[in-house]
């Protein structure tokens, strides 16, 4: 565009010789008005809406109205007019592009004429019939007269398109095909659909401010200032003038090997350079789009709440670097994969997906992250920071390198520093249970509100499964789909047969009473009615009592029994 002139209206590019506003912005006859009352704004040439403009092809696509005539009975119509104007662009630089448009009429008792040029010196038309909707052409079939007909050739030099239904006063097909439609539109745009004939259902036409419309291709030329011998418009170096092929006038082209806009000074540039310019423009656009998306994610994930709380914020790019492009997977949980990484300050971290954040849970999420980052407890994995630029927020935790409790209880030591099944005494197992309960009780005490449907009592239930795994050394799903907690509850209720599930390694007559105490706690935590389950603090208290009992019992045991 020329300096000081806008080059866009809404989503549509407006290249010179077209222009909006001041006289110097447009070549005479190419003035565009940008209607800002729409969102996005829409460009108009007179009362014709512009779809797009191509300087290289010398074309402009516009929306034009469909002409229709609807019957309310076999011989009454909604309008007495038989002739309607689809387009009038006389005395403008534009003409209907002959090769790029075709005439279409739709209906089951339809004779439609297309008239144009001065004094209607051009006339063509077609006929379409169908005895019922079912006998019309199938959807997508060519318009050969069964429901629709077409005339594929439009003559050059056409600046008016008038459509006429002839002197027909009746429509015997009005019950199933009440309306006749006719239009000149871009070639191959219209695809027949039977629904276009009937009263109901959406039609193929575009709806622009209440008017049913179709795209039409117009071509243009610099017509006023004569021909190529006085071509004032081709101002760019490396541009050539060519005579218009449709009507009088001329057009400008960039010379061979050049591309761009020949109507502006310096508009034609070497093609390689033009490709580079396009590529840079694409990159800039892409980066702008990416930046906008990162910011949108950040806002949606509660960035504006969390950024003031001193939590370390990682950018999406930093996380990619830290995890070496997410190359090392160390586990997988309910929310997705967990990746290993190393931060700039050489700290090993575990990076994992959090829950999806939306308006409903944004405050809960921000609250949970805030508190987690402030919890300082030897049994709680520390939250190092988070990344909110991703679709789903990512949480960065300190890395725990000695494997999980699951690995220790059920693994073969591959993830830990030993091989085979590790012997674990009852005292150690009880110690693990107490340490985990302390951690959970601390979090509960800080009122970490869990996002989603989780509550403190659901934590009690989940913890209990760990407790059961510790005393039975069975996985929560074992022996091909048996549920540890269901089996335990059933066994507990049946003559105290829960004892049969205890891990042999820790079962002995001396400690059976202690194991019974633990299984009583486990049973309470699994109560269906959440109100009957103990709190984390109560569980902790009870486990401490169990430990006292175990220590008391140990005093009565020989050294060999304790080692075992
Ligand atoms: N901080 C960490 N350090 C080392 N490994 C970890 C860490 N966090 C998770 N992992 C590994 O990733 C696996 C999955 O962890 P994650 O927390 O996503 O799932 P989960 O324990 O099933 O809990 P959730 O209910 O959150 O999905 C763990 O079993 C562990 O192997």
TrEMBL record:
It comes from the Eukaryota. GO terms for cellular component: plasma membrane. The chain crosses the membrane at residues 263-285. It is a single-pass type I membrane protein. Keywords: ATP-binding, Disulfide bond, Glycoprotein, Membrane, Nucleotide-binding, Signal, Transmembrane, Transmembrane helix. It holds the Pfam family PK_Tyr_Ser-Thr. This is Protein kinase domain-containing protein.
């Amino acid at each position: 565009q020329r300096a000081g002139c806008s080059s866009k209206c809404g989503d549509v590019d407006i290249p010179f010789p077209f222009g909006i506003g001041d006289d110097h912005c447009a070549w005479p006859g190419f003035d565009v008005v940008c209607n800002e009352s729409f969102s996005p704004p829409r460009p108009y040439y007179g009362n014709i809406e512009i779809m797009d403009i191509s300087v290289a092809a010398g074309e402009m696509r516009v929306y034009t109205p469909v002409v229709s005539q609807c019957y309310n009975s076999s011989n009454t119509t909604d309008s007495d007019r038989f002739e309607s104007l689809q387009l009038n662009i006389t005395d403008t630089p534009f003409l209907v592009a002959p090769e790029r448009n075709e005439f279409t009429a739709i209906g089951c008792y339809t004779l439609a004429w297309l008239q144009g040029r001065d004094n209607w010196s051009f006339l063509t038309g077609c006929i379409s019939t169908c005895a019922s909707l079912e006998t019309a052409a199938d959807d997508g079939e060519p318009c050969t007269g069964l429901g629709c007909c077409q005339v594929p050739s439009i003559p050059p030099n056409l600046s008016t398109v008038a459509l006429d239904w002839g002197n027909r006063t009746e429509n015997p097909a009005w019950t199933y095909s009440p309306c006749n439609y006719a239009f000149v539109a871009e070639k191959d745009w219209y695809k027949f659909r039977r629904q276009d004939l009937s009263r109901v259902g959406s039609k193929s036409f575009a709806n622009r401010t209440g008017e049913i419309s179709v795209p039409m291709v117009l071509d243009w030329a610099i017509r006023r200032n004569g021909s190529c011998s006085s071509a004032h418009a081709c101002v760019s170096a490396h541009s050539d003038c060519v005579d218009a092929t449709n009507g009088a006038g001329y057009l400008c082209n960039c010379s061979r090997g050049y591309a761009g806009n020949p109507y502006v000074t310096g508009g034609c540039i070497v093609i390689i350079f033009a490709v580079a310019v396009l590529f840079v423009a694409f990159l800039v656009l892409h980066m702008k789009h990416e930046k906008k998306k990162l910011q949108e994610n950040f806002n949606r994930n509660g960035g504006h709440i969390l950024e003031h709380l001193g939590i370390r914020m990682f950018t999406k790019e930093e996380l990619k670097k830290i995890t070496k492009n997410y190359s090392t997977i160390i586990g997988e949980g309910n929310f997705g994969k967990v990746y290993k990484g190393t931060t700039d300050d050489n700290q090993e971290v575990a990076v994992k997906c959090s829950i999806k954040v939306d308006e409903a849970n944004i405050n809960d999420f921000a609250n949970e992250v805030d508190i987690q980052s402030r919890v300082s407890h030897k049994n709680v994995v520390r939250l190092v920071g988070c990344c909110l630029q991703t679709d789903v927020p990512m949480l960065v935790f300190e890395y725990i390198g000695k494997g999980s409790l699951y690995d220790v209880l059920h693994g073969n030591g591959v993830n830990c520093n030993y091989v085979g099944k590790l012997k674990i005494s009852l005292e150690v197992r009880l110690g693990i249970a107490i340490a985990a309960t302390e951690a959970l009780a601390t979090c509960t005490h800080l009122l970490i509100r869990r996002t989603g449907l989780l509550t403190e009592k659901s934590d009690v239930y989940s913890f209990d499964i760990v407790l059961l795994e510790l005393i039975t050394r069975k996985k929560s799903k074992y022996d091909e789909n048996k549920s540890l907690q269901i089996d335990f509850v059933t066994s507990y209720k049946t003559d105290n047969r829960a004892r049969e599930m205890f891990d042999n390694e820790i079962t002995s007559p001396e400690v059976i009473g202690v194991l019974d105490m633990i299984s009583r706690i486990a049973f309470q935590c699994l109560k269906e009615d959440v109100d009957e389950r103990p709190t984390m603090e109560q569980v902790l208290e009870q486990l401490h009592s169990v430990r006292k009992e175990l220590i008391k019992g140990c005093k009565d045991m020989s050294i060999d029994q304790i080692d075992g």
